[in-house]
Structures are given as structure tokens and as C-alpha cells.
């Protein structure tokens, strides 16, 4: 189910001579669907923005259109997977936010993750500590786009992720390649 993401990761890994790892928790969240008037199996990140906005104020994970879906399990899996990767770099999530455990943690490290739209937006939301519904209703990651986050270390071991680029397609534009719109549900131009 990782398809294009695996192909892209392997090509990049060969180019930079680094190993690639397939992490099952980063597979697309295509099994998390809800009923919608447009289709009975709509991906949760494609719900109407107004409907998602209303859910942000409530406990979004349990209830509403997400009842009876595997969303809670996928959210837990994604969080656990992200926490495990971050822990490899001495970065941990606490109730009060992200923390660095070592003075040198993650200073020179770069991590590349290749994934699809829904899981990408959900992972970004987790790292930024915002409700995924906010990104689901208002952001788009074109196929082959690049998103860049920076872990900003703060005093006292505090840390936080900063979004530097979201869905950047400048490398495609530079090479006269049109960005794809796969994943958009409405007008695509």
C-alpha cells in the first residue's frame, strides 16, 4: 500500500547512498473512511471543510463521522511510530510538548519520510501539535511535493517543530513538470 512512496524513497536513497526503511505505520490511511453524500467511502481528510471545522472544537477523535472507523487505532499507530523515530534522536513528546534529552540531539540529523497525502497531513499535525482536522480541511500535499519541518531547540530542553515548507513543488516547476492533483475531491485547477 506504500507504492509510489516506496519507489520515491528508494530512488532518493540510492542517490544519496543511504539505506531506506519501510515503516508500515506510514502507509496511507485509506481504510479510514466515512459516509458522505458524495460517496459512502470518503477519506476522512476529504470531508467538507465546514464539517471538519465544527469537529475541531470537540474531542475530534471519538464521535461524529469517525465513530466505527479505525481512525483512533491509526492515530495511535502513527503517534507511536513517530515517537519511536524521534526517540532515536533523543527527542521525546511529553504532555507539555516536545523535549530534547541530550544537548546535541538532532542538531545535524536529517530525516526523510516518504508518504501519501492523508498520512502526511496527519503526521505533520502530530509533529506540530495541532488538530489533524485543521490540515485535512485546509492543506494539500501534491504527489512528489516536499514538506520541510525543523526541530527548533529551546531553553531547558524544550523543543518544537516549525513548518518551513508545506507541499513545495518548486523542483517540479523548475523541471517543467506539472504537479499532480491526485487526492483533491473538488475542482483541481
Description:
By secondary structure, the protein is of the alpha+beta class. It has helices at 3-16, 49-56, 71-87, 117-128, 132-138, 170-174, and strands spanning 33-34, 42-43, 91-94, 97-100, 146-153, 158-168. The strands form 2 sheets. It has a 4-stranded antiparallel sheet. Strand 5 (146-153) and strand 6 (158-168) form a beta hairpin. Helix 2 runs antiparallel to helix 5 and helix 3 (71-87) packs across helix 4. The radius of gyration is 17 Å and the shape is globular.
Mean pLDDT: 86
Oligomer: single chain
What is the β-strand count? 6
What kind of sheet is the major sheet? Answer: 4 strands, antiparallel
| Percentage beta strand | 15-25%
Unreliable segments of 5+ consecutive residues: none
Task: Give the radius of gyration.
Answer: 17 Å
Head-to-tail CA distance between termini: 27 Å
What descriptive keywords fit this protein?
two-stranded antiparallel sheet, globular, alpha+beta, 4-stranded antiparallel beta sheet, 6 helices, 6 strands, 189 residues
What does this entry show, briefly?
With 189 residues, this protein is α+β, with helices and mostly antiparallel strands.
Amino acid at each position: 500500500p506504500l507504492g509510489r512512496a516506496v519507489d520515491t524513497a528508494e530512488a532518493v536513497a540510492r542517490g544519496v547512498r543511504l539505506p531506506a526503511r519501510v515503516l508500515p505505520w506510514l502507509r496511507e490511511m485509506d481504510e479510514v473512511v466515512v459516509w458522505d453524500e458524495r460517496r459512502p467511502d470518503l477519506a476522512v481528510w476529504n470531508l467538507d471543510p465546514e464539517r471538519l471545522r465544527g469537529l475541531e472544537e470537540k474531542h475530534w477523535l471519538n464521535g461524529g463521522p469517525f465513530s466505527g472507523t479505525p481512525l483512533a487505532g491509526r492515530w495511535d499507530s502513527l503517534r507511536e511510530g513517530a515517537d519511536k523515530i524521534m526517540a532515536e534522536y533523543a527527542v521525546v513528546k511529553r504532555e507539555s510538548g516536545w523535549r530534547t534529552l541530550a544537548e546535541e540531539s538532532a542538531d545535524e540529523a536529517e530525516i526523510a519520510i516518504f508518504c501519501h497525502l492523508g498520512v502526511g497531513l496527519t503526521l505533520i499535525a502530530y509533529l506540530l501539535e495541532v488538530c489533524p482536522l485543521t490540515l485535512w480541511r485546509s492543506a494539500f500535499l501534491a504527489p512528489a511535493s516536499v514538506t520541510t519541518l525543523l526541530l527548533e531547540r529551546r531553553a531547558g530542553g524544550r523543543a518544537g517543530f516549525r513548518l518551513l515548507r508545506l507541499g513545495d513543488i518548486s523542483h517540479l516547476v523548475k523541471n517543467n513538470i506539472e504537479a499532480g492533483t491526485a487526492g483533491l475531491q473538488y475542482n483541481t485547477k
